[in-house]
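hiii, so i know i said id send this last week but things got crazy w the move. better late than never?? heres the sequnce for the chain we talked about at the cafe, plus the structure i predicted for it. fair warning i was half asleep when i ran it
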Amino acid sequence: MPQGFRCNCPFTSALDVVGDKWILVIVKQMLIEGKETFKDFTESEEAIATNILSAKLKLLEEVGIISKTKRLDNKKENLYLLTDKGLALAPVLVELAFWSDGNLRDIHPTIVNGESMELLRNNKAAFANELVKKYRGKMVYH
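okay and structure toks below
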């Protein structure tokens, strides 16, 4: 078994990678909010500490969820991009949002509620596919 995995269970192994409270937040920021640089992440409303952000980006790169490259217009700045493995987490994020919408809204009534949530409620798979399509579409510019 590779170092860092507790056992052979696929559920537990997935949680060993994405079960940290910041990992899926970072993936969500990339997929939905278009975050790509270290600065982008530090300016987000989730306010992740820079030392934690550095460690999580490194882990995401090590497991192949993101790749790190240089910006075309600024070779000094790192650019973080979701890989196919990272994009495969889109349905997981959509399911979490769906669960949150249906189960946390009563205790957290200010959770976003609008057109995008209505689309998510009506067709989770289509919503996830659209997120991936939009993300891939913006990749043409990098």
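btw The chain has one domain: 10-139. thought thatd interest u
miss u guys!!
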